[in-house]
Give the backbone structure.
Amino acid sequence: MTAKKVEVIIDKLFHGKQKIMAEELGVSANKISMILNKNQKLTVDSIGILLTKYRIDPDWLFLASDDEELRFMPDNKPDYSSKYTELLEEQVSLLKEKLESFQNKTASLKKSQNISSD
């Protein structure tokens, strides 16, 4: 999902107000600003809210070009948002495992350097 799509969502769903979007997604207005400036990305929880509460079409959100109009899931279209959320949560879990492994290796290296320097 791109910053351009976040801009479209703000304009179309939240009347151009970053603060309203932030409140609805349970994040700070500063976080929305950082997303628009491409310094951060929306959280899995925020994406889940956009997919479920606002029924944004996940194909538009993740696959469509930035030039395409905002699309919503029609009432008769199966709701795949839980599957997208599940996939995102799996990715977050994998990244957390990698981070924990990196932190453990770093701590081990620091410990071995402290032992060696004594």
Summary: The first helix runs from residue 3 to 13. Residues 3-117 form a domain with the 434 Repressor (Amino-terminal Domain) fold (CATH 1.10.260). The radius of gyration is 19 Å. The CA atoms of residues 3 and 37 lie 7 Å apart.
